Amino acid sequence: MTTLTSRDAPSLGEIKVPAGAVYAAYKPVHALEIDQIDDRSLVQFGFTGAFGKLMIDLESREVLETHDGSTVSFVNSSLERFAECLQFFVDLLSGVEEAGGPEDEGEGEDENEALAQRLEAGIRGIDSRAYREDSYWYEIRWAVSLGDYA
Hints:
Largest sheet: 5 strands, antiparallel
Shape: globular
Strand order of the largest sheet: 3-4-5-6-7
Number of strands: 7
Strand content: 25-35%
Radius of gyration: 16 Å
């Protein structure tokens, strides 16, 4: 974890964010950035995918994402839950890498789906609000099932 501070949002204080990039799912910013979307005061702490931004709502402390800079969608109930979910994801994929790949393609598809189901169950267990259709973790779960993280 890395601690970031923001002079522009002293109410936020110091926040601990995951220190390193996690595939295309998460990349930390070098410095916190303040933004305003939908009348919400947000602090960007990371990136996701090619164009997405991960942000903390200063009022609710929820983690949100935006891909267009004009609307946001829910990711996690808090930065702590986000970090736990991200660590679960990393640990899950690390276990697969250590075990090695499947013998044939059909077996790989079954293993990818089983891995995706474990990811979904883990995310739901950490933050019950985080996994829902068309959400950040939903999209990652489906990418895992398709073998994008194999």
